[in-house]
Amino acid sequence: DDLQKDNSDAVWIFTDGARVEGRPREKCAGAYIISWLRDPTEASTIASGASRAGLACAYSAEIGTIDDALEYVLDNFEKVFAGKQCKELVLVTDSKSSLESMRTTWLRKIQQREQRACRHLHDLAARDVFITLAFVFSHVGGCEGNAMADELAEQMCEKYGTECPKQGIWHVD
Q1: What helix, strand, coil percent values describe the chain, rounded to 5?
Q2: Strand runs labelled E in 2-135
Q3: Is the dihedral of CA 133, 137, 143, 148 positive or negative?
Q4: What's the pLDDT tens digit per position in 4-37?
Q5: What does DSSP assign to residue 61?
Q6: Which DSSP symbol is given to 9?
Q7: 129-152, pLDDT tens digit by residue?
Q8: Which of 38, 76, 109, 145 could staple 115 via S-S, CB 3.0–4.6 A?
Q9: Structure confidence by residue, pLDDT tens digits, 94-137
């Protein structure tokens, strides 16, 4: 199909995680934007949201945000794909490690959020959604949605960021 080749009728998800170090403690959070257009505008935005990281690390913020965005699409399926001839979803992220993690089966994941994100992809595919996972380099321009998600993630990190514990998560006897 031509629609699947050029993504002209796709729903777009842009995700990003943010980490703030210091001030006085490390914090992490993420944000997503779901849009009917490749370059989101206020009018084309279906939803945006914040995601709290399970641990104060960039990877958990990134994978958690992808998980939350996919869950939103599943929970609001009719709204998200209203009037769409072809159910196509393009997930854009600057987290190559998250995309590589989702390449293998969800049963082989260590983190619960990794497993859930892969399960959400499976559930969307079972509902006849054609899914494209796209990697973009962060902070180099060319992808307005990624820049918007990055800015929103920074704001969410300040507002909702999960703090790293004082002692750290590793302890040695």
Answers
A1: 40, 25, 35
A2: 11-20, 27-35, 45-52, 88-93, 130-135
A3: positive
A4: 456 778 999 999 988 777 666 677 888 999 999 8
A5: H
A6: T
A7: 999 999 988 766 668 888 888 888
A8: 109
A9: 889 888 887 776 566 677 888 889 899 999 999 999 999 999 88
